[in-house]
TrEMBL record:
Species in which this protein is naturally found: Undibacter mobilis
The protein's name: ABC transporter ATP-binding protein
Any one of the GO CC terms: plasma membrane
Gene3D superfamilies linked: P-loop containing nucleotide triphosphate hydrolases
GO biological process terms, semicolon-separated: D-alanine transmembrane transport; L-alanine transport; L-isoleucine import across plasma membrane; L-valine import across plasma membrane
Length: 257
């Protein structure tokens, strides 16, 4: 069963087609990756799926509902949650508070509850704090819970963003180049966490430039080049696909191989 179905998705900026007639199905429970060279249209694709950008043509179905024209907050509330290529933490908040903000997407309450703090609201706040610490433990940041999030090294900021996204209890977690800027050791740690997230039942769709990482952990991979999907298959199929090799290495290298 496909949790996400994308059909003929197209985005044009004037005469430029950033994405052109892209179709793919992301199976429930899978770890699916979208790769491609710089400028292939990967982030534009993510932006349309998550509601940050409207499409020119095509359709997006998530969990059985058409979300092609749905606003981003509605899509997130349905369980499609994303991280960003550039780390976007809440400044002036602690590490734990950043994760607690993510938890509130899945809680209830409003201004009146915040002001009068009934018993159910106080209980919910305790549960939010406990959930935040559990997620920080999951990504290896529990010891840093009370420090200012801006003081974390870059690699740990990446992990904090993942923990905050998990706090919203996603059905589908979109990771936009999560390994960007990480060293080899940090990338290995991230790969392990992504696999743990998926093993716990969360469907993962990631965009990544690190082909070695993707081919090691993904169940299935789609490849974009110049805004078009040129291949889709298992990691072994993708590594042997001539169009994929040409897109990354250049036609001349393929011909001389």
């Amino acid at each position: 069963m496909a949790l996400l179905k994308v059909k003929g998705l197209t985005k044009r900026f004037g005469g430029l087609a950033a994405n052109n007639d892209i179709s793919l199905d992301v199976p429930q429970g899978s770890l699916f990756a979208v790769i491609g060279p710089n400028g292939a249209g990967k982030t534009t694709f993510f932006n349309m799926i998550s509601g940050f950008l409207g499409s020119t043509a095509g359709s997006i179905e998530f969990d059985g509902r058409d979300v092609t024209k749905a606003p981003q907050h509605e899509i997130a509330a349905m369980g499609l949650v994303r991280t960003f290529q550039l780390v976007q933490l809440f400044k002036g908040m602690s590490v734990a508070e950043n994760v607690e903000v993510g938890c509130h997407l899945a809680t209830r309450g409003g201004v009146a509850a915040s002001l009068f703090r009934p018993a159910w609201f106080r209980k919910q706040e305790i549960e939010v704090r406990e959930r935040a610490y559990e997620l920080l433990e999951f990504v290896g940041l529990s010891a840093q819970a009370d420090i200012d999030s801006e003081l974390l090294p870059y690699g740990q900021q990446r992990l904090l963003e993942v923990a905050r996204a998990l706090a919203a209890k996603p059905k589908l977690l979109l990771l936009d180049e999560p390994a960007a800027g990480l060293n080899t050791q940090e990338t290995e740690g991230l790969a392990h966490i992504i696999q743990k997230i998926n093993a716990q039942g969360t469907t993962v769709l990631l965009i990544e430039h690190d082909v070695a990482l993707v081919t090691r952990i993904a169940h299935r991979i789609a490849v974009l080049d110049f805004g078009k999907k040129i291949a889709e298959g298992t990691p072994d199929e993708i590594k042997a696909h001539p169009e994929v090799i040409a897109a990354y290495l250049g036609v001349e290298e393929v011909e001389n191989a």
